[in-house]
Write a structure and sequence with these properties.
By secondary structure, the protein is α/β, with parallel strands linked by helices. It has 12 helices and 12 strands.
Length: 361
């Protein structure tokens, strides 16, 4: 394949080889739906005649689109492309390449080094989240599942421990669960909550290794515990992660934040749309975001559906729920306004009737 670039008008001409009509039809999709998806996601203009493609737009965007097309064309040799496949690759490669190139203007590449793997945050939001963790003592990562907020926090904690910036890591979760009851599970509280901490264990195993994690837990260098175990403690020189923090009460959130001592970093992650607290109890996460709004020394990163790095259907599910909930709220507001209007109409009718009765008497 060959490619020529015109820097002045930001046009790239891309020739895909071999010139196979079947594979090219597979690449373009029905009614060019795959090409349209690349256009809309990367914000470029895309035209083709046979195996010659012309891409127009900002130079970093058309370069990213060219990389996507080259990869997808290789995929057509062995399989039929579906829109979901194109979407997933744009999410994992094309959009990532675009955002990273945009981010390069702001500084060096953001990487997290752990003993067993080098972790590269995807996209500007994840990069900003990691930079915020490194520069603030208290950080909030707010957003839906699959955006990497907990995984990156664990990675940053492992890196800090490995570089001897902290002496230990504490991974904490409130003992509240989605539709399940802890009381009937065997064991003490720590054993009951252990299955709910599995994502944290899995991240640690990937970054450090199973045997090393077991040794560090045995030496209490890594501690994984329910939030209730934090009361009365002062945590110095520690990296503390509070996961699923939307399920803390107001009192628990205040208690947790006041445990943080000298030389410590705290990362609080949660999704304010997934509160599992009993009816009538308010989320400590929702409240603390209002209480600490504008407070210096605290970092807050908000993730959205576009930041999801799991299967593309996860992003669509989150967007569908957001849209449904917005429609429900709008319908509820409309019903409330209609009831208020009806009450106001009845009030005016009563006043008019009373006025007529007084006039008649």
């Amino acid at each position: 394949m060959s490619q020529t670039a015109s820097q002045a008008n930001r046009i790239i001409t891309l020739t895909l080889e071999p010139n196979d009509p079947r594979r090219l039809a597979n690449l373009c999709g029905q009614r060019d739906e795959n090409l349209k998806l690349v256009e809309s996601r990367l914000g470029i203009t895309l035209r083709n005649r046979g195996n010659i493609f012309q891409l127009a737009g900002p130079i970093h965007r058309v370069k990213a689109a060219a990389n996507v097309l080259e990869h997808l064309y290789r995929e057509t040799e062995a399989s039929d492309l579906e829109p979901d496949t194109v979407h997933l690759f744009l999410q994992e490669s094309g959009q990532q390449a675009l955002e990273e190139e945009e981010g390069d203007a702001d500084g060096a590449e953001v990487l997290i080094r752990t003993p067993r793997t080098l972790i590269k945050p995807r996209g500007l939001n994840q990069q900003g989240y990691v930079q915020s963790i490194r520069s603030h003592d208290i950080n909030f990562g707010i957003g839906p599942a699959g955006t990497g907020k907990t995984y990156l926090a664990v990675a940053a904690a492992v890196e800090a421990l490995n570089q001897q910036e902290v002496r230990r890591i504490l991974l904490v979760r409130p003992a509240v669960e989605a539709g399940e009851k802890l009381g009937f599970l065997p064991g003490d509280l720590a054993q009951k909550i252990d299955p709910y901490l599995r994502p944290l264990y899995d991240a640690l195993y990937e970054m450090i290794g199973f045997e090393q994690v077991a040794k560090l837990i045995e030496r209490q260098v890594i501690e994984i515990a329910p939030l209730a175990y934090m009361r009365g403690r002062t945590l110095n020189n520690a990296f503390i992660i509070l996961d699923e923090s939307q399920n803390t009460t107001r009192e628990q959130m205040k208690m947790f934040l006041t445990r943080i001592g000298f030389g410590s970093t705290a990362v609080i992650t949660g999704d304010v749309t997934q509160v599992d607290l009993p009816r009538g109890q308010s989320s400590g996460l929702i409240q603390v975001l209002e209480v600490l709004k504008g407070t210096s020394g605290i970092g807050v990163t908000h993730f959205a559906a576009k930041d999801v790095v799991r299967h593309p259907l996860v992003q669509r599910i989150i967007e569908a729920y957001d849209s449904f909930e917005a429609e429900q709220e709008a319908a509820e507001r409309a019903r409330k306004e209609a009831r208020e209007q009806e009450r106001e109409t009845l009030r005016q009718e009563r006043q008019e009737r009373l006025g007529r009765e007084r006039g008649e008497s």
